[in-house]
Amino acid sequence: MVESHQLRCTHFDAFRFFTEPARPLNITPLTRADQPEREQCGCLHATMDLYKWAWKMGPLVPGELWLDTLALAWKARVLDMEASPYDCRGLGFGVVAVETTEGKAEYVARQRELAEAGRALRSRLVAVLDAAGAR
Length: 135
Hints:
Largest sheet: none
Order of helices and strands: HHHHH
Number of strands: 0
Number of helices: 5
Oligomer: single chain
Radius of gyration: 16 Å
């Protein structure tokens, strides 16, 4: 699967776990230094990171927004696990067979839905930072 598709990972924290033979298969080599330029808001991992940043901002973030980022991170992680090469059905997860046309279409549709929800939460987090003068 990996060798027959072009990898398009843009999230450094995911890319750093690629094995040495898999790294050159990614369309773009990634580094921590170029993370701000390369990362895309549609990435599942960037969506999960909204929770990380809400948590790091601590008391600046209203509880409802913090919980919203946690709920979205959970949904993104579920898709991440369901599309992974690991069989997580025993843990109650489904399977998104990204190696098939149907599975790829399901993944893309769900990823877009999560990215759209992430866009709204990202705007709310930025507004919190702006209001606090922390950006």
